[in-house]
Amino acid sequence: MGTTVSIELGEDRPDFELRGLITSVCDWLHEVDARFSTYKADSEVSRFGRGELRLEDASADLRHVLDACADLWRDTDGYFDAYASGPLDPSGYVKGWSVEVAAARLLAAGSHDHYINAGGDIRMRGNHPDGGPWRVGIRHPWEADKVSWVLALHDGAVATSGTYERGDHIFNPRTGRPAQGLRSVTVVGPDLSVADAYATAALAMGESGIAWLAKRAADGYDSAVVTDDGRAFSSANLPAAV
Amino acid sequence: MRRSTAAAVGTLTGAALIIGVRLSVTPPEAPVVAAPVGNLAEGTPAPKPSSKKPAASGSKEKAPAKQKEAAKPKSGLKDGVFKGDAAANPYGKIQVTIKVEGGEITDAAATFPTANDSATINPPAIAALKESTLQAQNADVSAVSGATYTSESYVKSLQAALDAAKA
Fold first, then answer.
1. Does the pTM exceed 0.95?
2. Structural domain harbouring B85
């Protein structure tokens, strides 16, 4: 998927154990890339997209991904759309989901304090090595070396979508035109795949995405938004560091 | 009887808000608060923050203010939270809820449609997101969340610098 993953384990454990945990996360993410990348002609997703693989023959993971994309399409009034660019491209869900699975596997392997950052989308658990919460900065949309919010979390996910990286490559699926109005959307909540999809959908909505995001707070998804003209908005329960 | 009073008040509040919303979609030459929100309705991509905020909160505050004038001369309202009937306008349905404490309306809120393009006419003040000044901090953080779509952009990111510092 052409993204870089940073992993930090906060535990005081023998070096070989920590290395083993990180290796297992990397193996899983490489497996996901091989099976779900739309850039690989022989991936399961590509074969399914071309009609060479029937739904009933697809893996349980692929069927889960397709179901989740359909649910999110409904939840976002169609603004999260795995078919937005034409052929099936569930990458917008797969990234967050694969990190969720990786983090769950870390927990199952006894790691209670960790974060995984996949291309700016982060899932974390437990404590920073200093015993406090993980402090997560939200990148300033114009100044790459600055942050515009600092969050403090023990357990949760933070996903950011923005137009500052891909320029006009985020489209409003309703109009087929590039999304405009919002420069950066960050969603914080329990599940990284949902947070990521919500951030992408709100960005595609443009300014009306602010009102849409406000309603997601009731389900535990808080948000922080920067508009194209530099206004900043955040929900009341955004876990901002003090 | 009290209930019908509350319902009438709810409808009246609803009417006030509908007028507010309708004003917002009339052309800019329409009076007072209409102009800034009108920009939003016409799809101007980036309305000025300063002009929009007062307009949006203005239309929201207007309803309770009018209510008090209308309600005071009458016998006291029953305390509680009351919902008006959902009122349809060309852009969808609006339902107004009011809160009455000590016989006075202390709060009013409206639910707005968000589906389709009607969402664009909703004043952002209805949303629970609050506006603040955009910060640019050099913060001490463990990780950075941002739109980092390629490995090239990772190389230039703050996260990469943090990773390098820890390695």
1. no
2. 29-45+72-165
